[in-house]
Design brief:
The complex is a heterodimer of chains A (122) and B (886).
Chain A (H helix, E strand, L loop, with lengths): L10 E3 L3 H12 L5 E7 L5 E7 L7 E5 L2 E5 L1 H7 L2 E8 L2 E8 L14 E3 L6
Chain B lengths: L1 E3 L1 E3 L2 E3 L6 E6 L4 E7 L3 H17 L7 H17 L1 H12 L3 H4 L2 H18 L4 E3 L10 E9 L2 E5 L5 H14 L3 E5 L6 H12 L7 E3 L4 H8 L7 E5 L2 H12 L4 E5 L5 E4 L5 H13 L11 E5 L3 H13 L19 H17 L2 E4 L18 E4 L6 H4 L6 E7 L2 H9 L3 E2 L2 E4 L3 H10 L6 E2 L14 E2 L2 E2 L4 H7 L1 E9 L29 E4 L6 H8 L5 E5 L1 H5 L2 H8 L4 E5 L8 H13 L4 E6 L1 H16 L19 E5 L11 E6 L4 E6 L7 E4 L9 H20 L5 H23 L4 H21 L3 H13 L3 H15 L5 H10 L9 H19 L15 H9 L14 H11 L1
Parallel strand pairs in B: 1-5, 8-9, 8-11, 9-10, 11-12, 13-14, 13-19, 14-17, 16-17, 19-20, 24-31, 25-26, 25-27, 27-28, 28-31
Antiparallel strand pairs in B: 2-3, 4-5, 6-7, 7-23, 12-22, 15-16, 18-21, 29-30
Helix pairs in contact in B: 1-8, 2-5, 2-7, 3-7, 5-6, 6-16, 10-11, 20-21, 22-23, 22-24, 22-26, 23-24, 23-27, 25-26, 25-29, 26-28, 26-30, 27-28, 29-30
The chains are: A alpha/beta (122), B alpha/beta (886).
The structure holds nicotinamide-adenine-dinucleotide.
């Protein structure tokens, strides 16, 4: 299903993830796919997070549980297989992303919601 | 390959699991050492060792000086390992050797500088001379004590130095520590552990465990035996650490991300600005949380700046970090490199103009390594993600602006608030800009300057707390406030009274230091009194009535050349503005002493002036209870009414328009230095004022006796005052020039003033203050009218005292029951009032009946009511009293 690149990215979803993403999309009336993106989370560390943006020609895409995930191929090359879980415990609510090639020693420490990007750039 | 172990409880040990991990040289990607990889069991063991060591007290219980001496030994041992530390730091982190070679030195200096501060500058114990609670006297002081077990989580960009930012204050303040270095760069922290062992830091005081942040962090940040966490790293992880710490309310210091602005003003020295921007971005490959990665350049100099910085950036030598000639080494890791690359792509996609760099660099002779060229984007918009997110690499974004205000606004348009720089040849202008930027550090014409005594930390999402400086020492202590009650008796404890029906306070302190000089011709003493106070420039404060009576001039003449002026614009019931204007006059005349010649209005104004003159600002700043800790401007009083007693009291009553009522300064420090009671000064007082001011004094005396704070000294003074007023008031009413009777009235007023300074007043004053404020009834008149009614209201709570009052008022009490005698006291007050022609009813002095209810509500809230012999809490009861007085 990938565009541009001929591989399918591997994304694994933990329990409750597709429901959480589904209700987020319904709430916000969002049609676009969910992007797995990389950002610097300030001083020393980078992290993966989820956002909503338009698909680019070069993206890798994957359909899973009725949802479309996209990832930039270069990021995928760096981080490898991505696991998305959803947590809702004392004071910690949101998506946790880890990868087979962790982006840092704190990989999966933070939680995030799904960001709605103002533009395409990720 | 070298092998490093964990350092737990004074021993170098393998991980419980036996696991190890490799650490690499980012300049070659070659592994350089294996390190024991701590897991849950090791973290728990390290915490247990630190806890035990803390509780053992052989570190936490040392004197600050003894601990500092040990930390100095520790510093010596680090110095001994200097060369090894510098090489290892460089090789493991990618820091160029020309920088890394300083790391041991600046770490040693930090330990030594903070040791010195801990011993000589740190306020381990602080006295609180004025507690701010007027009801519970005692010695108040704070002790600063260690927090306990501290966890330090240090980053990979300055592995040893930033670890020392945490180690030094933690240990100096008496804490024990578990340090977790970043997994990319664990080596130098473990060498520092060797130094700690060699220095004889007791076992368990300092522990180092290397291993995965997420796994160890979860244990370190949630373990109940850990008291504090100091973390340097990403904002996202910092947020999680705060959350984890919240479970057991650990203290946290977080030094997190930044997206600082380097602001180049249009008048900046161009060469300096270029070098500054370059250094603020490419130093340590841009892997510095304080990097000034948004370079804001004035549109007036933008193009020239751009030309110069491109050339300069392109001249930076990138090379292997151990090569002495390298300006920049590698980034720390493959992931770091990938993220930086991603952001550079993003910048291009966002429309920023890549003008140099933007690519990996291969270093000649080396295969691999994470080298990246110094990269500059121009035409960056601050809304772009490359301007909002921290890149933590050598990527400089240039943003053009038109005015200083716009530069400040752009600088502040960030979730971060860590640092920043301003370049300008005009320091005043640069500082104005610096003040506008909301960050924890600003450098002017400099960048990345860290100093041991200067605190570092962030505003907004850049962190919590401060590292370095005395601030960092404070962060590793907690404050214990110790109150040692001055009164160790439950019957004298005013606060405990809240839960007791026994409201009387037994113990007391008597502190009435005003020197009283009394008698015919007492005025002459003023010349010496001023000289004794060491003053030469006395300002006379008075009011126009008193001045017209010629009394101020008498004083001026007695002062010979010690008088700098007479100021007489003081109105009755003075307000705060009156005091401020008088203070301005005193300042103008450089007065060093205030002499008040007048009634309570003048004296209280003068008290306010003395405080404001001494401490600055406006008198509104000082409407407090018992907070002054030093002698105030010297104050000599010559009272011209015999009523308020203000010449010896600790109170100034001032009208606040803002509060819509009279407010007080109550303080032992405002008691005048000298009171001169010269009967000449009251002889000009008209009859009606003589009567009403005397009733004020009478109310002071009787209310002081009925107060819950009354005591033998108060009663002695009050009773004699009552006796003197009763005997002498009719005499002065009959003949205002009866000098002996006038003097006795003055003495009575002064004694009544002392009595209520000791024991306060009560409900009659609360009620009088209210009708005074709301209906402008003169204070003495209002007091007199309500006093007998309040005496009757209090009868069951102060019958013994009122019986004494009755006797002092000359009532024949033979054969009467105490209760009846007490009521007779109220009758005696009323008959005295009638005898001397005092107003008897509120209706006669212009109080509208329909306002009595609202007066009752106000009166109940008056501070004076607190000490009334009978507890007052029902406004209806107060309304009844007002009605009786109506
Ligand atoms: N600080 C205290 O301990 C304390 C205690 C009670 C009352 N007060 C305050 O004192 C003020 C009332 O003071 P006061 O009752 O002394 O009256 P006052 O100072 O307001 O003077 C009243 C009037 O008497 C005139 N006057 C005073 N002495 C004179 C003299 N010898 N010859 C001719 N005229 C003279 C004044 O010019 C003025 O017009 C009120 O503001 C009251 O709240 C203070």
């Amino acid at each position: 299903m990938g565009r541009g690149w001929k591989i399918n990215p591997i994304v694994k979803l933990g329990p409750g993830v597709s429901q959480a993403i589904g209700s987020f999309r319904a709430d916000k009336g969002i049609q676009q796919p969910i992007r797995i993106a990389l950002y610097f989370s300030g001083c020393c560390d980078s992290s993966l997070y989820l956002c909503v943006v338009t698909i680019l020609e070069t993206d890798l895409t994957l359909e899973l549980d009725g949802l479309t995930f996209v990832i930039n191929p270069e990021i995928y090359q760096v981080v490898g297989e991505v696991t998305i879980s959803y947590v809702d415990e004392m004071g910690r609510k949101g998506f946790v992303l880890t990868s087979s090639k962790p982006v840092g020693e704190w990989d999966g420490c933070g939680v995030s919601d799904i960001k709605i990007q103002p533009n395409l750039y990720v | 390959m070298e092998q490093y172990k964990l350092f737990i409880n004074g021993e170098f040990v393998d991980a419980d699991s036996g696991k190890t991990f490799e650490t690499i040289d980012p300049g070659t990607e070659a592994p350089i050492a294996t390190v024991a990889q701590a897991g849950k069991a090791d973290a728990e063991e390290a915490i247990a060792a630190a806890r035990k060591a803390f509780d053992r007290g052989d570190w936490s219980g040392l004197t600050p000086a003894a601990r500092a001496a040990k930390v100095q030994d520790f510093a010596d041992q680090i110095a001994r390992q200097g060369l090894r530390l510098a090489f290892t730091e460089s090789m493991n982190s990618g820091q160029v050797i020309s920088l890394a070679k300083f790391m041991p030195l600046i770490s040693v200096t930090l330990l030594r500088n903070l040791s010195l501060a801990a011993v000589t500058k740190f306020p381990w114990e602080e006295e609180i001379p004025a507690s701010g609670n007027a009801f519970a006297p005692g010695r108040e002081f704070i002790r600063r004590e260690p927090v306990g077990v501290c966890v330090g989580i240090s980053p990979w960009n300055y592995p040893m130095y930033i670890a020392c930012w945490k180690i030094a204050p933690a240990l100096l303040m008496g804490n024990t520590m578990v340090l977790k270095p970043a997994s990319y760069t664990p080596l130098t922290a473990l060498i520092v552990a060797e130094a700690a062992k060699a220095a004889g830091i007791p076992d368990g005081v300092f522990n180092v465990i290397a291993g995965p942040g997420r796994e160890l962090g979860e244990i370190l940040c949630t373990h109940p035996d850990v008291d504090k966490i100091a973390f340097t790293g990403s904002t996202e992880v910092g947020r999680e650490i705060m959350r984890m710490a919240a479970g057991t309310i650990k203290k946290v210091t977080l030094e997190l991300g930044g997206k600082s602005a380097t602001i180049i003003l249009d008048d900046a020295d161009m060469e300096l600005a270029v070098e500054g921007a370059l250094f603020s971005n490419f130093f340590n490959q841009g892997q510095v949380c304080s990097s000034g990665s948004r370079v804001l350049v004035s549109s007036k100099i933008h193009d020239e700046f751009l030309d110069k910085i491109i050339k300069r950036a392109e001249s930076i030598r990138i090379g292997y970090q151990m090569d002495q000639t390298s300006h920049m080494g590698p980034l720390v890791s493959k992931q770091q490199l990938a993220t930086v690359e991603r952001y550079v792509k993003l910048g291009k996609e966002e429309g920023a103009e890549l003008i140099t760099g933007g690519k990996r660099v291969e270093v000649k002779g080396i295969k691999g390594g994470f080298y990246y060229a110094p990269t500059i984007f121009a035409n960056v918009n601050n809304k772009m993600r490359i301007a909002q997110e921290e890149i933590f690499g050598p990527v400089l974004c240039i943003i053009k602006y038109d005015s200083d205000e716009e530069a400040i606004a752009i600088a502040n348009d960030s979730v971060y608030g860590l640092a920043g720089g301003v370049f300008s040849t005009n320091t005043a202008r640069a500082e104005r800009v610096a003040r506008g930027v909301r960050t924890g550090t600003i450098w002017i014409n400099n960048y990345h300057i860290f100093s041991d005594y200067c605190p570092f930390g962030g505003y907004k999402q850049s962190g919590v707390g401060r590292e370095l400086g005395l601030e960092s020492l404070r962060e590793y202590t907690q404050i214990k406030r110790i109150h040692v009650s001055a009164i160790a008796d439950h019957k004298s404890n005013m606060t405990f009274k809240i839960m007791s029906d026994y409201k009387k306070v037994e113990g007391f302190s008597y502190n009435c230091p005003t020197a009283v000089i009394a008698g015919h011709g007492a005025l002459s003493s003023i010349y010496k009194a001023v000289a004794d106070l060491g003053c030469r420039r006395a300002l006379i404060l008075t009011d126009s009535g008193v001045n017209k009576a010629g009394l101020a001039q008498l004083v001026k003449d007695a002062l010979v050349d010690f008088c700098v002026g007479i100021y007489d614009s003081i109105s009755p019931d003075p307000d705060l503005e009156t005091v401020d204007v008088a203070t301005a006059v005193a300042r103008e005349l450089k007065a060093d002493c205030i002499i008040s010649v007048g009634g309570g209005s003048v004296i209280d104004t003068a008290k306010g002036v003395c405080v404001t003159l001494k401490n600055g600002g406006k008198v509104n700043d000082y409407l407090n209870f018992l907070v002054l800790t030093e002698p105030q401007t010297p104050h000599i009083v010559i009272p011209t009414t015999a009523g308020t007693g203000s010449e010896v009291t600790n109170m100034a009553v001032l009208t606040s328009k803002g509060a819509g009522r009279k407010l007080f300064i109550v303080d032992t420090r405002i008691m005048p230095n000298v009171a001169i009671l010269d009967p000449r000064f009251t002889m000009t007082l008209p009859k009606d004022l003589t009567v009403t001011t005397a009733m004020d004094a009478m109310t002071h005396a009787i209310e002081a006796m009925m107060s819950t704070l009354a005591n033998q000294i108060c009663d002695g003074l009050a009773l004699h005052a009552i006796r003197l007023i009763n005997e002498n008031l009719p005499l002065v009413v009959a003949d205002g020039s009866n000098e002996k009777a006038r003097l006795n009235m003055q003495l009575a007023a002064t004694m009544a003033g002392w009595a209520f300074t000791i024991a306060q007043v009560g409900l009659a004053h609360g009620m009088a203050h209210t009708i005074g404020t709301l209906h402008h009834v003169p204070h003495g008149v209002a007091c007199g009218i309500v006093l007998p009614k309040v005496m009757r209201y209090n009868v069951d709570h102060a019958a013994d005292k009122l019986a004494l009052v009755a006797q002092a008022l000359g009532t024949n009490t033979a054969g009467m029951k105490e209760h009846d005698v007490a009521l007779a006291a109220a009758d005696a007050v009323e008959s005295l009032m009638k005898k001397v022609g005092h107003p008897m009813r509120l209706r006669d002095v212009g109080v509208p009946e329909e306002n009595l209810a609202i007066c009752a509500f106000h009166a109940i809230a008056d501070t004076a009511v607190i000490f009334n012999g009978r507890p007052v809490s029902d406004p209806n009861e107060v309304l009844q009293i007002y009605r009786q007085a109506y």
